[in-house]
User: What shape does this take?
Amino acid sequence: MLTSLVRIPTDPSSIEDIFSSALGIIFTDDLSNQHGEPGSTIVYQSKQFGDIELRLANPDSEDGRKLFAHYLWNAGVLMGELIGSATAEDIGSFIGTSNKKKSDWAVKEKKVLELGAGTGLSGIVSILAGAEEVVLSDYPEPTILANLSVNVEKNVPSEMRSKVTVQGHEWGVLTDHFSQTHARKFTRILAADCLWMPWQHKNLARSMLHFLSNEEDAKVWIIAGFHTGRAKLAPFFDVAAEEGLEIDTIWEQDANAEERQWQKERDGGREDISGRKKWLVVAILQRRQVLASSTAVQEE
Assistant: This one.
């Protein structure tokens, strides 16, 4: 189970804290889909790379707190598992039947951009898994970016840190120096739990398309939980298609790696909250091939 991969360090003398941190495992009908508290430390237990200790941000501004980057979400845990499992000899338990090729999640020698990085878990796992370059980006709120830098320093060996950059990026703002100098540069773009704000779907899709490489195998990896409601995140894929991205693969997966077919609407829109917290949508997107081909011709 995804939640078993996250450990929250607690004072052994505090029975209340120990019990509270285990509720999502004991009562699986009320699965924990977020982990930690602002300013606290949590540990992601990676089979491939050992314990990854992550400090959670404690944003100063109201805008920063509204982004909920100060938690680790199950979508980020699953993204880390899929990327890490691609380096293992055996297929990890969270690479299910919808995606039997672990190479689909490999980042070795890839240039990786994580959007809405939060704790930076997916990007940190990417550099440990052999990525050529990783940029951890999030909204340009100083405490969020500073916290990302702390997590990089804590978990990335010194000899690898030159390959990692922490960068502020506001989705859809593509005229700044970073956006202009990194256009079409990344062969893997990661987005974990970034679909819960419908008003940002167009901006997010535009950033993805702007930074995504023209290379044929360049992909966008998206994982998002349904806890805020399927109706909020499902329209993103239509918006992405309008902007020039197409779905390569998409399915739904729960915290136990059970899979089912993706649906824009389920149970007539009456999914209960406990069910929504268990399930995530997993999608691999790419440039729309007609668009990619015409762009390549124009640049020759």
Q: What stands out?
A: Residues 171 and 203 are 5 Å apart (CA to CA).
